[in-house]
């Protein structure tokens, strides 16, 4: 859901400021940055989940620990998505004027 809400406005905003001759390079660079960001995002979310998944050994503790880890991971994901949305909102809206 976050990707669908953020990627399209980001693509439009960034590529609107690029000369048509450089659109291919800019699009490829942006796609590469998105893939790297996605990989880092999975790594961060996984690290938060497994770091917060602490059990005492009993099976009931594992269920509680998994719930706690999932809740903390969800809050972390929400915070990252909110920050990304804020940054997209702060991007310039109009293309620059040519001299």
Tags for this entry?
mainly alpha, 3 helices, 99 residues
Describe this structure in words.
The chain is mainly α and 99 residues long. It has 3 helices and no strands. Helix 2 packs antiparallel against helix 3 (59-90). The N and C termini lie far apart (39 Å). The mean pLDDT is 83.
Q: Could you write a compact summary of the structure shown?
A:
The chain is 78% helix and 0% strand.
Number of helices: 3
Tell me the major beta sheet.
Answer: none
Outline: elongated
Number of strands: 0
Q: Which range best describes the helical content: under 10%, 10-25%, 25-40%, 40-55%, 55-70% or over 70%? A: over 70%
N-to-C series of helices and strands: HHH
SS strand fraction: under 5%
Average of the residue pLDDT scores: 83
Unreliable stretches: none
Question: What is the first-to-last residue Cα distance?
Answer: 39 Å
Q: Output the radius of gyration.
A: 19 Å
**Category by helix and strand content:** mainly alpha
Secondary structure elements and pairings:
Blueprint: H1 2-16, H2 23-52, H3 59-90
Helix pairs in contact: 1-3, 2-3
């Amino acid at each position: 859901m976050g990707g669908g809400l953020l990627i399209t406005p980001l693509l439009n905003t960034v590529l609107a400021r690029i000369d048509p001759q450089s659109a291919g390079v800019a699009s490829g660079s942006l796609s590469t940055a998105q893939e790297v960001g996605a990989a880092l995002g999975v790594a961060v979310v996984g690290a938060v989940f497994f770091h917060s998944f602490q059990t005492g050994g009993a099976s009931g503790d594992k269920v509680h620990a998994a719930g706690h880890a999932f809740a903390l991971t969800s809050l972390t994901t929400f915070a990252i998505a909110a920050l990304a949305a804020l940054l997209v909102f702060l991007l310039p809206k109009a293309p620059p004027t040519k001299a």
